[in-house]
From TrEMBL:
<dbReference type="GO" id="GO:0003677">
    <property type="term" value="F:DNA binding"/>
</dbReference>
<dbReference type="InterPro" id="IPR002775">
    <property type="entry name" value="DNA/RNA-bd_Alba-like"/>
</dbReference>
<dbReference type="InterPro" id="IPR036882">
    <property type="entry name" value="Alba-like_dom_sf"/>
</dbReference>
<feature type="domain" description="DNA/RNA-binding protein Alba-like">
    <location>
        <begin position="11"/>
        <end position="71"/>
    </location>
</feature>
<dbReference type="Pfam" id="PF01918">
    <property type="entry name" value="Alba"/>
</dbReference>
<keyword id="KW-0238">DNA-binding</keyword>
<protein>
    <submittedName>
        <fullName>Archaeal DNA-binding protein</fullName>
    </submittedName>
</protein>
Length: 92
């Protein structure tokens, strides 16, 4: 049996999915026993990552806690791309 509560699940924001679908994926992960989630937006998806976090906060209130925010950049396909990373913890 795998203990998913100690596992950190990372969600990378995508333009191909709606914000609502991505929010529901994170809520589903919390409901399946995941306690820690990392939400990461690259480049143009940074604004969507903020929108997803705000929607999660609106829907769950104190049910989601912001543990930290990291900003930085990574080299992908020979280009440096900025990112925004939210570290979230289940609060319910």
């Amino acid at each position: 049996m795998i203990n998913v509560s100690s596992k950190v699940v990372q969600f990378v924001v995508s333009r191909n999915k709606s914000i609502e679908d991505q929010v529901l994926e994170i809520i589903s992960s919390f409901n399946q026993g995941v306690n820690d989630v990392e939400l990461k937006g690259y480049g143009r998806e940074i604004d969507r990552a903020v929108d997803i976090y705000n929607m999660l906060k609106d829907k769950l209130g104190d049910g989601v806690k912001l543990e930290g925010v990291n900003i930085g950049s990574e080299v992908k396909e020979k280009r440096r791309i900025s990112y925004l990373l939210f570290k979230l913890r289940k609060g319910f």
